[in-house]
Design goal:
By secondary structure, this protein is mainly alpha-helical. The protein has a single domain (19-452), classed as Glycosyltransferase (Alpha/alpha barrel), CATH 1.50.10.10. Helix content is 47%, strand content 4%. The chain is built from 17 helices and nine strands. The chain has helices at 7-26, 38-51, 70-80, 85-96, 121-124, 148-158, 160-184, 208-212, 226-229, 238-253, 258-264, 272-292, 297-310, 350-361, 389-401, 405-422, 442-452, and strands spanning 68-69, 108-109, 192-193, 269-270, 314-315, 320-321, 324-325, 427-428, 435-436. It has a three-stranded antiparallel beta sheet. It has a two-stranded antiparallel sheet with strand order 1-2. It is globular. Bound molecules: alpha-D-glucopyranose (GLC). Alpha-D-glucopyranose (GLC) is lined by residues 60, 65, 69, 71-72, 200, 202. The site of alpha-D-glucopyranose has 7 residues, from helix 3.
Length: 459
């Protein structure tokens, strides 16, 4: 396959490739795991990681996302660890090279400016941010789900001989990141977000109530770049975007001061993605502390806080862990793939399994990012329905660890089928497997190599 550097071209290539897959789908001849020959797909996945490698850091996909994103980068490290341990550690080290003095690891690091993305470093205006300290690398002013410690632990386990020294060097930065999260985002016991982008699930229905409460007056005129790369029906709406930018301006006007933002932002939502990924990372950080001979008491205290806080996300009506608006106390009423991260976080209830089984029954390709039975469901629109390989990776591994083998196997098989038949897309329709968003996507390739491929050694 020819090298694709433009995302739109890449998505087009996926579409062409899919004409055959669609026919196969109609004839119900979808690939079985046993029928997949992993070799060419593994090779393609490695090619994508190298293609998106900008020299020490990896972009999610060229064109649509031309910078280093926080949790994308941690997944890139997981993928690199299957064939280049040194490069895997370098990815994490570059990410933490952008850490602020207060411990925050930004959601975007703007290494080399690119006009193809909005909002850029100038719009974020973090130059004088409170907490940034001596950090010179331009960045956004918010963070993203803290998967880095968990994935660093996976990278370590893939090659302990090389990994121990690298993990030891990264360890204090990982601890500082979590100390910042617990101080700046955990006032309700669960971990909350100050912007939908912080959850990594930009337009999830979990934020609808809080977003509706924002009147986006005073947003400076701007041009969206995302819809120049990807079909608008697969992206957030214009109303969402106005509010995203309004919230960026809100933070910038307060010099990204966490205390000021927490005091009066209309958007403050406790989030299952942040809470469960943080909980899991703290458990893995605890293991790292033991390995390195560090004291884990502080980490254990944070785990206890989050275990209790996670229960504030349990909605007895939907029987799922959900986003909860801290300004109103209301649940979103949204059963999502973030709800299914509870097992990854080491938290569960018997009713959560019933809810999961219901979602799996009504879905052709698991896991949908939002329950197909829910009123906001849209099978192609980003985080309101589509399947995301990274969420499947975390959810299914947590399930397997909790003894939910059938559910975990189903999710892994569906992930492998989608990628094998539809390519390394950003996300997929749970209805018919349509590949959506950007193509040649880093984290889809990484998850393939580390877990979904029949050749994966188990991550
Ligand atoms: C989108 C996704 C987010 C991801 C970013 C880069 O904003 O919602 O989770 O980190 O793209 O891939």
């Amino acid at each position: 396959m020819a090298v694709q550097t433009d995302t739109r071209a890449a998505a087009g290539a996926v579409e062409t490739m899919n004409a055959g897959a669609e026919a196969a789908c109609r004839e119900n001849e979808m690939t079985d795991l046993a029928d997949i020959n992993p070799d060419p797909l593994d090779e393609e996945a490695r090619r994508i990681l190298r293609l998106n490698d900008k020299g020490g850091y990896t972009v999610p996909t060229a064109g649509l996302y031309p910078y280093q994103w926080n949790w994308d980068s941690a997944f890139a490290a997981l993928g690199f660890a299957t064939f280049d341990t040194d490069r895997a550690w370098q990815e994490l080290e570059t990410l933490f090279g952008g850490q602020w003095d207060n411990g925050m690891v930004p959601h975007i690091l703007f290494h080399v400016m690119d006009d193809g993305y909005f909002p850029g470093a100038d719009v974020w205006g973090t130059a004088n941010a409170v907490g940034r300290g001596g950090q010179e690398l331009p960045s956004s002013g918010i963070s993203q789900p803290p998967v880095a410690a968990s994935l660093a632990w996976k990278v370590y386990k893939a090659d302990p001989g090389v990994g121990e020294a690298r993990l030891r060097a990264l360890y204090p930065k990982l601890v500082a990141f979590h100390r910042w999260i617990m101080a700046a985002r955990a006032e309700s016991g669960a971990v909350c977000i100050t912007h939908p982008w912080e959850a990594g699930r930009d337009n999830a229905p979990d934020w609808d109530e809080a977003m509706a409460g924002i009147d986006p007056v005073g947003v400076a005129s701007y041009t969206r770049r995302d819809t120049g790369h990807v079909d608008a029906k697969m992206r957030p709406t214009q109303a969402d975007y106005d509010r995203y930018i309004w919230l960026v301006q809100f933070g910038r006007d307060r010099d990204w001061d966490d205390a000021k933002i927490a005091a009066d932002s209309p958007f403050r939502v406790a989030d299952p993605t942040m809470t469960f990924t943080c909980l899991r990372s703290l458990r893995d950080l605890g293991l790292a502390a033991e390995l390195l001979g560090e004291d884990r008491a502080e980490i254990d205290g944070w785990i206890a806080t989050l275990e209790e806080g996670a229960e504030t996300l349990w909605n007895p009506e939907t029987k799922a862990y959900e986003g909860r608006n801290l300004r109103t106390g209301n649940f979103a009423g949204s059963v999502s793939n973030a709800s299914a991260l509870c097992w990854w976080g080491g938290v569960s209830r018997p009713e959560a399994v019933e809810t999961l089984d219901g979602v799996l029954e009504r879905t052709r390709y698991a896991l949908p990012s939002y329950d197909p039975a829910g009123p906001q469901y849209d099978h192609l629109r980003y985080w309101r329905g589509p399947v995301w390989a990274i969420m499947n990776y975390m959810a299914a591994q947590g399930m397997a660890e909790a003894g939910l083998d059938a559910q975990a196997d189903r999710i892994r098989t569906d992930t492998a089928r989608l990628i094998a038949d539809r390519g390394f897309a950003e996300y997929f329709s749970p209805v018919d497997g349509t590949p959506a968003g950007g193509g040649t996507f880093t984290w889809t390739a990484a998850v393939w190599l580390a877990w979904a491929s029949p050749s994966a050694k188990g991550a």
